[in-house]
Amino acid sequence: MSILLHLNSKINKKLIFVLKIIYGLGLLRSKLICVNLGYNYDIRINGLKQKDLNKLNSLITLKYKFLVQNELKKYIYDNIKSMKNIKSYKGMRHTYKLPVNGQRTRNNAKTQRWWR
User: Fold this and answer.
1) Rounded to whole angstroms, how far apart are CA atoms 33 and 55?
2) Is the pLDDT of residue 43 over 70?
3) Which of 32, 40, 67, 83 lies 20 to 30 Å (CA to CA) from residue 107?
4) 33: how many CB neighbours lie within 10 A of its CB?
5) 3 state SS of 14
6) Considering only CA atoms, which of 107, 67, 113 is closest in space to residue 94?
7) Torsions phi, psi of 44, nearest 5?
8) Is the torsion defined by CA of 64, 37, 53, 40 positive or negative?
């Protein structure tokens, strides 16, 4: 699966910011990828050739085995679904659409509870 397939080669943005757009890659991971490939942080995406993009794609998927985009979304969804199935505390909080990580519900959490 090509991660950078949807990118247009006419984009004139820096490589680290284009990598940051990909779901699952933040600024720290994009800098790590640039350092490992030997690229400067200021290199632009339109300055790369197709060979470089293929090398970048293989580094993300094969060497580091980062879960990105749909794979990461499916992994998160499956984890939440398994928590709901075993009826853990966090799973029940997800089921009732309440805050999960110990936040208050008296004053805040209106965005999580707004359907009620």
Assistant:
1) 11
2) yes
3) 83
4) 20
5) strand
6) 113
7) -95, 150
8) positive
